[in-house]
Design brief:
heterodimer, A: 522 residues, mainly alpha, two-stranded antiparallel ribbon, 30 helices, 4 strands, B: 392 residues, Cytochrome Bc1 Complex, Chain C, 2 domains, two-stranded antiparallel sheet, 19 helices, 2 strands, 3% strand, globular
Chain lengths: 522, 392
Amino acid sequence: MKQVIIYNIIILLFSINSIFSLSSEVKSHLDRAEKMFKSDYLKRFKFIKTKKGPDQCINCHSNMPAKFKKPVEDFKKSVHEKAGITCVECHGGNSSIPDPSAMGDKFGGKPNGFIGKPKRNEIPILCSRCHSDPDYIKTKNPVLPVDQLEKYITSMHAKQLANGKLGVAVCSDCHNPHNILSHKEPSSSVYPVNVPKTCATCHNKAKMEKYGNTDKKATYEANQYNEYKTSIHGKLLLEKQKTSAPACNNCHGNHGAAPPGIDDVAMSCKQCHPVNAELFLQSKHSKNDIFKKSESPQCTSCHTKHSVYRPNHALIKTNTKCSLCHSEKELEDKFKITKGKGDSKFKLFEDQYGKQVQHENKLCIDCHAKNQTQNNNDRANSVKLMKNIITELGKQVKKVENELHTSENRGLGVSEAKFEFEKIKNIRTRLRTIHHIANIHIKIIPVDETYEGVIKEGVEKLSYKEVIDACHIILKKIEKKLELANDEYSFRRMWVAIATIIITFLVVMLILKIRNIEANKT
Amino acid sequence: MKFRKSKIFKWIDERYEITPLVDYMSKKDVPLGSENLWKYRKEMPFSEFLHRLIHRHYLWYYFGGITLFLFIVLIISGFLLLFHYKGGVDTAYDSVKDMISNVEFGWLIRSVHSWAANLMILAAFIHMFSVLFTKAYRKPRELTWVTGVFILALSMGAGFTGYLLPWNKLSYFAVQIGTDMMKGIPLIGDYLLEVLRGGNQISGATLHRFLGLHVAIIPLGIVILVGIHLLFIQRQGISEPMEIETGKAKMKELTGVELNIKTMKFFPNFILRDLVVWLIVLNILVLLAVFFPWELGEKADPLAPPPPNLKPEWFFLAMYVVIELVPIRVALIFFGILGITWLLIPFWDRKASRGEKSNFVLIFGIVFTVLFVILTIIGYLFPTNWFSKLHF
């Protein structure tokens, strides 16, 4: 008995440096969080980590029923286990005692700082004890950020938690309490592809109502995941597994998750769509502060928030996007624009050309551009010209694409032509973004290596029309390469025909020889 | 014989004494079945009659030769590919692409190599099944069968290792899945996987290992085994189907008539016929290469998600379906037992060596062949996620 007491004292002395100690800076940070979340965790929590010998928590729990064993099994796969973190560093207590008294007074021992399962309002503080401490994090993984708590405090989750709503997300809801994996691990709940599903575990109608959030907005928001799944972002991330496509956190932030403010929407979208955003900022919509005046978010007013789809002719349909604002009543109510300015034109257009434009799958912007060629007043000609050049380019691209496909199927070396064709695809994608300035003749498209060998040296910016001309030059280059490939194919066919004739001749000769030999023998 | 009198022959014979070898070869016969069969059709049971009738069409004898010819094509085209191929994560794909686009007849050599590899395995399978059903493995040709099974296994290994060499997307992920199966091997699975991959992941090290295996170790193994296989055939001659042997005896017992077995001289009659078949196969190869060129696909990107509906090469499809349907460890144990049983057929099929009918081997062979064909078709037709729904 004496020996056991002495042994425990020695362990206590040796592990004194591992007993909870934090720098004053981190401590003040945590104190602030404790006040916000009304927690006394830091006062209650203490631990003694096994320095030598097996971890007794793992030892006992490994031999217990599934309910108690599972946390240990999960923990063994986690990054914490790999970093040498032990159970007591989150749960408190003494991991060197091989009996239940390790878990303090609740299990027959002396009070030793064991807190068991942490309360939900304590979890952000518990995690931040290490994750807000740069000195400590440096010893484990120097590239890990240490500002999670700082950001979390600014999030909607934290604000609700401070209001006593314990159902909101805390660290362990997104990162899993025991099986904490790196966000780079595909099976991790915070791996980009899994993030939308992780968020949707709470952000769904049933859960939101359970948390008492039953207002209309919350119910609507609860459908984000379903909307996101159908969006272009969702399809890229969830179906094509393109991890560069945005998940929830790319717009809302990770730890400081909150909906972007009305003015922040464009900024958020700009992170991935800089050219569109730049052009939008130069458009009438932005310059006249239309969105600000109407208190509408910028990009999402037309493209929607979560179900972002590829813009198409539906944008001009009555009662949707463009027409939402460009209609008599809306304009009057929202922007205080006098009657008959934009609305009547739209109405007139809708009546006269609506069906035709829908049929041709055009956007408003495809035609809404001024002609700056010869006659500024000749709008009819401008629209015609626009329509003609875009349609012509589309036809040419389709034709070359088919030829390229045929050549590829024939196994011809068309990699260079394919490379050039990729340029056309990129340019056409960029052309779609140019729509945001609502003018096709302003020289706004910066020249890069895509246009190498196609435009004059020294030119820095191109207009929409010049870009289309450049596309035609590239297409001609591709067609030349495809012609060469077709010549090669004819050459191959000729040689295979010659080879077949030679082989057939040899086969016939051999058969005759065999017959000759066998006839002689008989 | 003109050739024997020629100066070249004399020059060689004077130095290397090849006359006995040529004499030996010209004395060898290829059995063609009974020539006076029709006369005795009433006295003979129908099945035996049919066997002999089929045997008169000695088509199956050519598949061994076709396999050998395709192997020679593979060696030659492989050498030519090696002149241009640059093994390495950054260079492999580009060198193959450059070969197809810029090297004179590079496209032809690559396509011929790929088609020849697949046709060789197909020919080897047909050859093996024809040997199984004619029971040509029976005493004294047990070791010929064993070497043949090893040649087929090595050829499949060559196909597997060669698949990765262009370093394209499909091959990268298919090889990843293929090598992952190693984990299922009890005790040494993890170690074997690491040895084969040269690490945990498919990387440059894996490519170099596969290149070494594909261009040196496996072909060397095949050459040695083919040499032994051919030596056995030359020493023992071409096997006569068992039914002919037993039929002859039975015929004599029933009618007292001794059947004459029609034969063909191996040299030059059979060799010339072989040459005709080889020329036709060569023509088929060239036609396939021109009209159905082997696709190169996209460059492998280890960070990209695996392409949907990923499948191994056709000769692994049956195995792949089994692995998709049952736990991997069970599947590998099953394959192990099946492989050993298959390899040792000549040793456990005692009836065949005694010249008796053994229906068990026949049923075993038919079930195996039918299952192999059906599973290959299922693997080819059904999408990958179809299997995951059936996991149990």
